[in-house]
Amino acid sequence: MRRWRPRPWRAVVAALCGAALAGAVQLTAPAAPAAEAATVPSTATVSADALPTVQVNGVVWAQVIAGGRVYATGEFTSARPAGAVAGQNEVARANLLAYDLATGQLVTSFSPALNGPGYALAASSDGSRLYVAGSFTSAGGRAVNRVAAVSTATGAVDASFRPRFDARVRALALNGGVLYAGGIFSSVGGTPRSRLAAVDATSGALLPWAPTTDAEVMAAVVTPGTSQLVVAGRFSRLNGVQRLGSGALDLSSGSTRSWAVADTANAWGPKAAVYSLATDGTTVYATGYNFGGSGNLEGSYAATADGGRLVWASGCRGDTYAGAVGGGVFYSVGHAHDCAMNGGNPETSPRSYQHAKAFGAGWKGARNSYGVYAGLPGPDYLHWLPTLTAGTYTGQSQAAWSVVTDGRYVVLGGEFPSVNGTAQQGLVRFVARSAAPLRQGPQGASSMAVTATPASGAVQLSWRAAWDRDDASLTYEVLRGPASAPVVVATTTAASSWWDRPALAVTVPATASATYRVRVKDPGGNTATGPATTAAPSASGARTAQLAPEGAPAETAAPEGGGSPTTAPTTAPTTAPTGAPATVTDVPPTATGASTTAAGAPTTATLTAVPTSPPAAAPTGTRGVRP
After folding, report:
1. CATH code at 445-556
2. Rounded distance, CA 347 to CA 351, Å?
């Protein structure tokens, strides 16, 4: 019997994906925002160091942070410590667990078992009570119907809390003594409810609140100070009023409220949805997916909590499954393969995916340079580039499905088997740089070989820049002499990323043949050294070292493939960049689901310039990986 999975569809070949998107996507023309937020400065992200965290043997669909713990639910049967391989040191955990946020260790006293998948979590404000929703009919050995209340202290399921939903629940939001729920259900305790309902948070008794939708509700969030609940999902109508994938409801009456962004950034129907919601109190952040469905949202948007006026929209291509905001940063997970319109990773062939990324939460003044939101306010793409490997549990070759943050920690959940090249399955933590070990150093040094050109009394040296997962700017030291006692003869600094590793060059005085290497260093002191090259000047004499300007723009450095410098990119990349986090094509995954190119692995690929206009016939969706 095939298990229903809440997230993805099965993979299909690229030709089918492209044809479906070309013929079926219905784009709502972007409208100018009613109001634009004031610009804000860029904000630092957490470190890209993957902290040791308990692991699971399946997939995590949802998480919540409460009382110094992370609660995670999904589809899994066991948990094991960080560093343990599958089958080693495992303990039973049926679709729900808790771990310590500071240590990453499993909370052994919390072990209620669900007999089916869990899809949503909510915690009481004091952290004493956890609500879990999904498709289960038993929790902690007690008969329940898709929503349960659990003591965080003991793991005991409250036997008196039994609201009896007749079908799966996908969204939970808690406001005081009221628990709001969304999903595909049609009744609660035998009383009709059309995919939305509210119950007493203590007793589980059904409340009169009864708005309606025409399709599944997948996310819900209460916006403080507005007396409203924002909901998102596959629907196109709320209470009979058009709301394309997202909308706002009055907390007391359930009536429809204004939500302007739904006319600009939207996704709805059986093959598309506004997938997740998060809020910092004044702004609501949403993510979406579209696989040949209706609408235009694959990335994310930010809208004012009051009225839903657009703040910014990300035109990134590649579905976005979850988002979280904290510390002035919006973190998201999915499989972005083209974020160049927002200053991020460009389209490559074969495709390369950035499975986790970060934007500035507020608007800094940037605009989408092309795509469905061309000209509209866009987010500030921040340099946070952890490498997640696609997993195999769902058969969809995806990595993370969930992200939450308390502003200090960012935690991811999903089906990934490794992070930054180290085995770490299903769950991982990242922390603010002030508390992180800062061991994520420069990548790609093995492809940082020096090319030497003799000059009169000097040697001209050039090499390809490295890149770093959480530092855009790196320092390069040119070393001369034996590896045991080298001398630094030149230093320069340049910005780079895995998709943009410019050619750097210096000219150093020389009087004889010598060995040269380049050592790259990040702000945390991590270093890596490239291969050695022996070179000699063409004639005697001395010259002052000439360095490429620090942070030199692309037009001052030779392109990676050689040839003349270019001043403005005009075409999309045709080959995946060396060191891309993951490279897969839009075809059914291999038996292992692994990416075809490992992070940081040297290749002979050449990356052309980042596009300023969309590639011809570029699809708006990617692999057949959909909820």
Report:
1. 2.60.40.10
2. 7
